[in-house]
Amino acid sequence: MLPKNTSRVPRKLLDIESHPQEGWEVSTMTPQVGATVHSVEGFAEVVRILGKVTDGTRLLELKIVDREGPSFFAATSNVLQEQDADS
């Protein structure tokens, strides 16, 4: 879990590619509301899909699955989505 004040957190720790997870990958496909994704904070459920960010992917409102707390936001390009079993 990241500290509340992220001004002292190295930028690399905020990038999902520094948190690899077997069977999960970064995708430009927008996940559905209710889907589970993997963020730098852990597994999260997609609550809402919002506008586009500068890299062209969608902004997601996420809620951590296994603990209480406020929702947070991440770009689709900064979350991991489960790979298809047939790929």
Notes on the protein architecture:
- The structure is a single chain.
- The protein is an all-beta fold and 87 residues long.
- The protein has a single domain, classed as SH3 type barrels.
- The strands form two sheets. Strands 2-3-4-5 form a four-stranded antiparallel β-sheet, with no helix packed on it. Strands 1-6 form a two-stranded antiparallel ribbon.
- The protein starts with 23 loop residues before the first strand and ends in a 5-residue tail after the last strand.
Brief summary of the model shown:
With 87 residues, this protein is an all-beta fold. Helices cover 0% and strands 37% of the residues.
User: Can you summarize the main beta sheet?
Assistant: 4 strands, antiparallel
Number of strands: 6
The DSSP helix count reads 0
Gyration radius (Cα, Å) is 13 Å
Neighbour order of strands in the largest sheet? 2-3-4-5
What overall form do the CA principal axes indicate? globular
What is the total domain count?
Answer: 1
Alpha-beta content class: mainly beta
Can you write the helix and strand succession as a string?
A: EEEEEE
End-to-end span in angstroms? 31 Å
| SS strand fraction | 35-45%
CATH class: Mainly Beta
